[in-house]
Amino acid sequence: MSTLPNKQLDTFDNARPDRDYTIHIETSEFTCLCPMTGQPDFATIKIDYIPQLKCVELKSFKLYIWTYRDQGAFHEVVTNQILDDLVSAIDPKFMRVTGIFNVRGGVYTNVVAEHRKAGWVAPELVQLP
Q: Is 32 a catalytic residue?
């Protein structure tokens, strides 16, 4: 496997496609460039998804995230692009990508983008005492 930035998202088979369960991925090492000033932007990217038949392999995800380091991108665009690329790679039942961008000029930006597979219904939350 490569150790250089790479847009290829590798996958593996979901061992329990019969069960809805959530996978949470989080990285605080996301960087891109402001497309207006060229200054670096830093963010935490959180991904929550309910897999269908495939799951994303984490090292390839890390190398994928690394590809944004020298790319100019608006926060809204990059968060949605990450969602699109992951959905294309694994076709999940549900996925939410949250970009929590560090403060710049006193302004914080959080961007949340979601995908729901047609026909999928979220399981009901169980409240325990």
A: no
